[in-house]
Please model this.
Amino acid sequence: MVPEHLMEDVQIALGQRLAKTTIGDPQQEGIRMGSLATKIQVDRVRESVEKLAAEQEIVYGDLDNFEVAGVDKKAGAFFSPILFRNNNPFKNTSVHNIEAFGPVSSLMPYKTIEEAVELTAMGKGSLVTSIVTADDKLATDFVVNAAHTNGRILVLNEKCARESTGHGSPMPMLTHGGPGRAGGGEEMGGKRGVLHYLQRTAIQGHPDTITKITQQYQPGASRPEANPHVFRQHFEELNVGDTVYTHKHTVTDADIASFAQVSGDNFYAHVDATSLEGTIFEGKVAHGYYILSKAAGMFVDPKKGPVLLNYGIDNCRFTKPVYPGMTIGVKFTVKEKIDQEKRSEDDIAKGIVKFNVDVYDEENETVALATILTMVKKLEQN
Model:
């Protein structure tokens, strides 16, 4: 589909490019196009081309008269590229209903992006549509309105064209498949294709039982108090569910002011009680990152031990405002253990431990949640 005023230019450019395509044995240097899969496919594509030719003009290619290099033309399932021109695709609609599984394309004009969307929908379901434009607004309009008839849309511009794998090459992480004629769903590609062949079982039971089976802490499961502190235990000694219950801390105005000064975060909700009209806050509120930092100060056992380092935070959420005068505590729970192999003979034997950080207030309501990732040394270094 081409903007109407560019039809002639695109037809000429395509003809020139196609004229450089040599058909023949693709094992030979300079030959880019081989044969179809079988002679049965040749017959089927030829039949589709003849049906399409009843409504639109062939502007490049010939069903019979084409050259084949380096091999006997009659010995293989060779087929010439065919380019059609359909000047009225809203009237001559065979192009939307006949899919020739071969090197066959049709040029169709559109006046507006709305017409392009309508023409796309007339195919009644596509695996993929490509739109080539440098105008992101135009691309947005097309994608939003054409998505319901496509399994995938490839947007190409000068920034990504060189690295593009092409119209028909989905990445493993992308949906491949489409609605309607495209199959009515997703094809067995990528991750979904792998999962389809795996045995997957849903487990139901009490959170304690599911925690024990999966070795991943489940909300609502028991959290026995860790003894000794989890930072004093090696990887093998830690048990999923073991929890450190920290001392409590009452947040003050001075805490908030000090954190604002140290961090440079002087957002109005933390420092200016006169600016809170029309907000959800009842007064000056503690920084979320102060709450998380203070929580670390409460759950960390600072002396040197098996914990080697903290290398990240996942799924951090601040779920309830904390005001001066509120008291917080932390439940610090072993959430999951992931074994690691030594990379070399000299490497430290260790594993990854995920800890669930649950910061709660005097009403036992959670005010912040996060998952802390740590590396923990093993007892056995051999």
Notes: The radius of gyration is 32 Å. Residues 207-377 form a domain with the Thiol Ester Dehydrase; Chain A fold (CATH 3.10.129.10). The mean pLDDT is 94.
